[in-house]
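Dear support,

I submitted the protein below through the web form. The confirmation email said the job was done, but the results page showed an empty box. After a refresh the structure appeared. I'm attaching both so you can tell me whether what I see now is the final result or a partial one.
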Amino acid sequence: MVIAPSFFGNIELGSIPAQEEQMLIGRVVEATLYDITGDFSHHYLKMFFQIHKIEGKTARTLFKGHEYSRDYLRSLVRRRTTKVDGLFNLATKDGFKLRISVSALTLSRIKTSQEKVIRDMMEKTIKDKAAALTLDQFVQEMVLGKIASDIYNQAKLVAPLRHVGIRKSKLLAAPGVLPPDTAPVTEEAEAEEEEEAEIEEETEAEE
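What the results page shows now:
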């Protein structure tokens, strides 16, 4: 039986057959936040957990990351608006390192100078939060929308906004548990930009 971390209530995530228990170490299990909370409004958020310890018949996991589903991301994109994206590396109070992707979608097109102000607000908010919170606390506030709400409340003073969310996260390193992910931020940003361009093209074609 594979279970979620304790801060998600040790919810059962399913089972994975394996000839030897140790073969499960490092495996990544996918679920939705809806599977964990039972709240259907969370169905769009994909969650990833990595098995790091076997205790009898129980496989314990670490939070590995999350992301918006492709369909949900497509539903947010509108023509003649601006999508402000930020990609940031940060460290939590207890030494976990993450890479976070934040998006703010406006009601109309905005100036480049306004984009920069909003992006700076994103960075300050999430880095201040990470420095003050443990991984458990940070992940809960992130996936349940508390951090995005804090960013929204600041950024709406710069420009009218339709949506602010942390659309993707990735655990890069955990103290004494996982090897660090050394992929440069620029490479990941380029990959995300390509995916977003595809989504925008699909949305415009549908319109």
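Response: this is the final, complete result; the empty box was a page-load delay. Residues 179-183 have pLDDT under 50 and may be disordered.
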